[in-house]
């Protein structure tokens, strides 16, 4: 009886090891997209923090800082209607390149343009 329990216990360890290897294989296959998403989220958090601190150091009022920071989310909302049309028109690879270029250009312009439009 003890030997049978030992065999079942050993078989359980083997099954767990196989499950872990399968999970690692799945994780390895999606690790690049997870890393990309993590970098985008980190960059988004840093640019949001930088914008608020830069606007505060330039002497913007709290209301203007609030408008600047909420403009991102307004653009995000508008993008949910525009982006699918662009993806269908040019394909997902070219659309991604376009969106990445626009995001990069906007991030650079934050450093170049100091005064809000009056």
UniProtKB/TrEMBL annotation:
Record-given protein name: Major facilitator superfamily (MFS) profile domain-containing protein
Domain of life of the native organism: Bacteria
Zinc-finger recorded as keyword: no
Transmembrane segments: 20-43, 63-83, 95-114
InterPro entries given in the database record: MFS_trans_sf
GO cellular component, as recorded: plasma membrane
UniProtKB keywords: Membrane, Transmembrane, Transmembrane helix
């Amino acid at each position: 009886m003890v030997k049978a329990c030992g065999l079942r216990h050993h078989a359980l360890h083997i099954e767990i090891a196989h499950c872990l290897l399968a999970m690692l294989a799945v994780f390895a296959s999606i690790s690049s997209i997870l890393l990309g998403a993590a970098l985008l989220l980190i960059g988004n958090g840093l640019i949001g923090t930088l914008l608020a601190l830069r606007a505060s150091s330039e002497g913007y009022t709290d209301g203007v800082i609030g408008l600047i920071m909420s403009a991102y989310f307004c653009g995000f909302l508008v993008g949910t209607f525009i982006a699918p049309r662009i993806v269908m028109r040019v394909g997902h690879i070219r659309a991604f390149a376009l969106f990445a270029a626009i995001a990069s250009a906007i991030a650079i312009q934050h450093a170049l343009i100091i005064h809000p439009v009056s």
